[in-house]
Design goal:
This protein has 366 residues and is of the alpha+beta class. The protein has helices at 3-25, 82-88, 97-105, 299-316, 322-332, 357-362; strands at residues 41-44, 51-53, 55-56, 64-67, 71-75, 117-125, 132-142, 146-151, 166-173, 178-182, 185-188, 192-197, 207-208, 216-217, 229-233, 241-247, 264-273, 283-285, 289-296, 334-339, 345-352.
């Protein structure tokens, strides 16, 4: 393996040991001791008993039950096999023990139809169909100092131009927050979770983790970094939230089928909004923008859905007329291709929050 990657892995191992020593010496947490509104904080590791492999399903038993206002620290694992990572050049000692345990401990019958290893589901008390579940991405940490990017024939947007497979291990420099893609090519890190979603309606059955849809799921939206909020329609009691598919960074489109795939630790706060309608697709807010999303196999249809979602948001939450909402998107919104490669293509509309500063002041209390 590349010498720089060995040095980076060594630094990360020492850092992890130091962090564990701090945790061991810290006083135990008590009920109610967490930031914000006094909810509990839970830690959910990735184990054979706490992951859903390749699917979202209303029938999957929850691995954790929480209340609105609680926070969960999710540990997630890279979407690849230990053998695959080792063949690509990762030293056996640098493959996470949790990933090995999951591959050894999850029965074949519980895998698929997709390939993502998702931590959860988490049952949120009080969330019922017709409500909205808000998640707040309070912190996203890199768990390992490497990522990979890969393509193979039959997948990816340009698959006929690349009728073979290739994988590249990409060292992640945790100190400089950059990925060393190649000599002289360094990419700033923007970690986010490619897949975050709730359970679908029971009629969906075991839904493939690859195509994003009304539940969110494999949205691969690179804008949903630390500090973002995502709002999901709830389809089943408890919502049954799952998370995974960690990315150290990605370009819009994700054209070769993968991003900088890695393992992440995410600190997520949950809020149930009773009776608040969101949909038919999730929407989001970053520190700087409002975001609406649309998914469909037809890129044009996905775009229609995303634009319609932003119009509905502006009418229902910002109290604009439909005409003004449509016009505002045209003059100030950006229509971006989220991804092109997950069966259902993704489009998102971004509208900067800054343009509403004076409007919100003028309409305060209305």
């Amino acid at each position: 393996m590349h010498t720089h990657l060995h040095r980076t892995l060594r630094r990360a191992t020492l850092g992890a040991a130091f962090a564990l020593s701090l945790l061991a010496s810290a006083p135990p947490a008590h009920a109610g001791q967490s930031p914000g509104d006094g909810g509990h904080t839970y830690t959910l590791p990735a184990t054979p008993k706490t992951v859903a492999w390749g699917h979202y399903d209303a029938r999957t038993p929850p691995v954790l039950r929480i209340r609105s206002g609680d926070t969960v620290v999710f540990h997630t694992v890279i979407t690849n096999s230990p053998d695959g990572l080792e063949k690509a050049g990762v030293a056996p000692k640098d493959v996470e023990a949790s990933l090995r345990a999951i591959f050894a401990g999850v029965p074949a019958a519980d895998r698929g139809p997709g390939g993502h290893i998702l931590t959860g589901p988490v049952y949120v008390e009080g969330a019922e169909p017709g409500d909205t579940l808000e998640i707040r991405l309070e912190k996203i940490d890199l768990a390992i100092p490497y990522a990979y990017n890969a393509f193979r024939y039959g997948l990816g947007f340009q698959t006929d131009d690349f009728p073979y497979s290739r994988i590249k291990i990409i060292p992640l420099d945790l100190a400089t927050r950059t990925a060393h893609f190649a000599p002289g090519i360094d990419i700033p890190l923007h970690p986010f979770f490619g897949s975050m979603g709730v359970a679908p309606p029971p009629a969906f059955g075991r839904y493939d983790s690859a195509p994003p849809t009304i539940i969110g799921g494999n949205m691969d939206n690179k804008e949903l970094v630390q500090g973002s909020r995502v709002f999901y329609p709830v389809f089943v009691p408890g919502a049954l939230f799952q998370i995974g598919d960690g990315h150290a960074g990605q370009g819009n489109g994700e054209v070769d089928i993968t991003a900088m795939e890695t393992s992440l630790v995410g600190t997520v706060k949950f809020i149930v909004h009773k009776g608040m309608k969101t949909g038919p697709y999730p929407r989001a807010e970053t520190p700087s923008d409002f975001i609406s999303m649309g998914f469909d196999d037809d890129l044009t249809v996905a775009t229609h859905k995303a634009v319609a979602g932003m119009i509905d948001f502006l009418v229902n939450h910002e109290h604009l007329s439909r005409d003004d909402a449509y016009m505002l998107i045209s003059v100030a919104g950006d229509i971006d291709i989220t991804e092109l490669v997950d069966h259902n293509k993704g489009v998102h509309v971004m509208l900067p929050k800054a343009i509403f500063a004076r409007y919100r002041t003028a309409h305060a209390g209305h």
